[in-house]
Amino acid sequence: MHPARDRRAAPATAASPLLEVRNLETWYGPIAAMQGVNLQVREGQMVAVLGANGAGKTTLLNTLAGVVDPFKGEVLWQGERIHGLDPDAVCRRGLVLVPEGRQIYPFLSVRDNLTMGAFTRGDPDGVREDIARVFGWFPRLRERERQHAGLLSGGEQQMLAIGRAYLSRPRLLMLDEPSLGLSPLLTKEIFGIVSRIRSETGTAILVVEQNAAIALAHADDGYIMELGRIVAADTCANLSQKADVREAYLGGQAAHQNASGTAQRWKRRKTWR
Ligand SMILES: Nc1ncnc2c1ncn2[C@@H]1O[C@H](COP(=O)(O)OP(=O)(O)OP(=O)(O)O)[C@@H](O)[C@H]1O
Ligand SMILES: [Mg+2]
Question: Fewer CB atoms near the end CB (10 Å): N or C, the chain?
Answer without folding.
Answer: N
